[in-house]
Amino acid sequence: VEERASSDNLSVSQPPFSSDFIAELVKLLGQSHVLTERFDCQAYDSDWTKIPGDAHLVARPGSTAEVSQVLALCSRYQVAVVPSGGRTGLAGGATVKKGQLALSLNRLNRLGEVDRIGRTITVQAGVTVESVHQKAKEFSLTWPIDLASKGTATIGGNLSTNAGGVRVIRYGMTRKWVTAIEAVLMSGEIIRLNDGLEKNNTGYDLLQLLIGAEGTLAVVTEATLKLTKRSTNSQVFFFHVPSLEKLNDLLTHAWAGPFQINAFEFLSQDCLKLVQRNLKRGNNVETDSPFYVLMEVEPFQDDLTTWMEATFEKGYATNGAHGQSPEQQKELWSIREGITESIAQVGPVVKYDVAVPVKSIAEFLNSVRTQYQKTPRQFDLYLFGHYGDGSPHLNLVKQSSASQEAFEASISTFEKELFPLLKQFKGSASSEHGVGVAKKHWVKFSRTPTEMNLFAMIKRSFDPKGLLNPGKIIDLA
Amino acid sequence: VEERASSDNLSVSQPPFSSDFIAELVKLLGQSHVLTERFDCQAYDSDWTKIPGDAHLVARPGSTAEVSQVLALCSRYQVAVVPSGGRTGLAGGATVKKGQLALSLNRLNRLGEVDRIGRTITVQAGVTVESVHQKAKEFSLTWPIDLASKGTATIGGNLSTNAGGVRVIRYGMTRKWVTAIEAVLMSGEIIRLNDGLEKNNTGYDLLQLLIGAEGTLAVVTEATLKLTKRSTNSQVFFFHVPSLEKLNDLLTHAWAGPFQINAFEFLSQDCLKLVQRNLKRGNNVETDSPFYVLMEVEPFQDDLTTWMEATFEKGYATNGAHGQSPEQQKELWSIREGITESIAQVGPVVKYDVAVPVKSIAEFLNSVRTQYQKTPRQFDLYLFGHYGDGSPHLNLVKQSSASQEAFEASISTFEKELFPLLKQFKGSASSEHGVGVAKKHWVKFSRTPTEMNLFAMIKRSFDPKGLLNPGKIIDLA
Q: Which residues on chain A are in Cβ contact (under 8 Å) with B365?
């Protein structure tokens, strides 16, 4: 009897999904588009953060109508849903817990024609960023959101995280380059926002609200993206900059230059040394300077000599390279782009994707360095990122001599100083990657209780039962 | 006794504001910043629509803290509040009903310094758009939102209506040029959103939600505006275009030209004739063409001859003028800018500020003209506006022979066809001016019941008692 009861308990105790629910899901999508084996599901567990997930059921709808039917079904059965795109996120926004359905948008991969009058393209959520770039390029156009993960990152995910990238200083974030969104609410209702309109001032901008909502308000199924002319005559500078203060001077000087700034990225001497050592790139660059800037510009005139001479005369840079050919430019970019990879080769790393007002970035970074140097640490500090956007990446890499425990304790101490400092500088705990589950703890340093309360009310307006990507951005009371 | 009762009734019957409330308001702001005489208040009744208002009490706080105190007071006394800026709106968003407090933001007129590193300026809500332009110009910068009302329109109003203007095709709407908003909720709580951050992906974008909310969610008290380089080498073309189809061809051809397009505005032959007759402008332009385009560009190279020759060879334009000097450019712009004034001289006019996807504008305008010509009308149809944004202005001007009643009946019939047509083209009932009270009736042609329901829930999240600018955009059930 004892054994029987125990066995009964096991068979009824919280099966993750009821057989009725799975049967209805299979009826909707067909057996081949419902994954039920753990082996097949585990690819959907998480994103690039590798925060552990435990997916046991994956639905792969093939149309917006099917997404709608799946969400309505989940609402009926009270099953939580995690939208899943390319899973290149860096905040755990796509992490699936046991009992949550992973909703893959990958079969929504229709890439529309380029509209040459309105300069837009309409694509489904599962299309990759790179596919959009390739299609637009045929018309000498581009969608100017450019990031390392573009071959895998999908449009649905890009919109849901309001992705940035290396050319934000010129073009801004994803939200500036979207003129329509089709999305499905948890109820199964389909909403089509703006429908490709450049202008629509009829009430609250729900389109902007869905961008950056990390799939917690609605599931993006399709979007119309705004395109722009491709930059074809860019030039790249790689400057040696003697201090953070001179970095500010250089940026101000660059704003006044005879060009548009496409990118203004910085790296510390330590980053350069790592890239040279681990990737054998940029080895002809002298490691004599505390900071370096990679600046890509689109000139208004052919000759930038006068501007460049002034840069050195005024002491904003002590040395520099000027890449005019595509090959030279690619080589200079490869230094900047190699930083993450070269850091990964060293050891465990903790990354902070923060932002402060651009005018404060030098002062903020100086404060971070002072704080770092104040007490003995079990990690090395690497500084690089989007200087011109006020968006540095702080990478804390475990020292080889330190134990994992000592490293983590050291990080924990450092964070207790870092986030109050960030708050003091009116910064953001997540400049680009979003909150997901990874940064929920830090949001309070960037957002007030009043704002968090508004978040919760907005969340409930869209998803009263709290079934859509629950536990991401906020925990509902 | 009869008389006594009557007199009592009068004295107690719904005084718009209790004397306690007024006393507390005066205590907060001082007598000189609380207007109680109808004569002083009437300027705050309405906006440029002249929709009748009836303001009997105006509060003029001098700081964000005072705005907060006034709103908290109004919440306590359940007094409805209408934020009031330059009142240049075109949808009745600032119209004050009896019993509503007009909250003037005009004393919040602090104009901050230009931040040359971050390229921003922080200003209070009551600062005019023109003041921002003048200040930015000292640094060869601009805030690229440019509209006819800029001398009077305030930043608070511009943000609250997500204003557009003549250079949207180049720069986009107001919402792309704001990096921080300080606002006060109806509860009196002050929220500071983004604080000048270029990037902040920590939760729902409340800043974007407040832009275009027409003062129904919170009162904007301060903003940080993003600035950009002033266009200094622009050139203007004024083309004669033989048809709407050729207008599309011309736009596509222009996108591929060796320049950036700053403005792509169109007008019909009738508009040109009116400007020539009523304002004596553009009289050297031949009235031989059904449509004209004013295009302002910022060239990548000095010589645009090749591009211009192709324009005529391919038949996209039959004639044209090319303004290179500032004087010539000003003269060409004065034609476009004179249309509204010259129409106003003719007689009563009804204006529709609609939008359709850019690729559909020619077809939409053709359909509107067909519909107009189908049955006898009591008005003349004038077409002009922001062609390159898919945002035409339809102006219906009373024929001198028609009675006002016949004109209005004729308009009413026309509208019953126009808005379903707009819906069919997936258009917007308000491209730029907002909804206010004037366009509430038409929103249903651009927004679904699901969207309107979300609006209502968002409104309640911010303003549960419905006291902030009530009756604008939506009526709460």
A: none
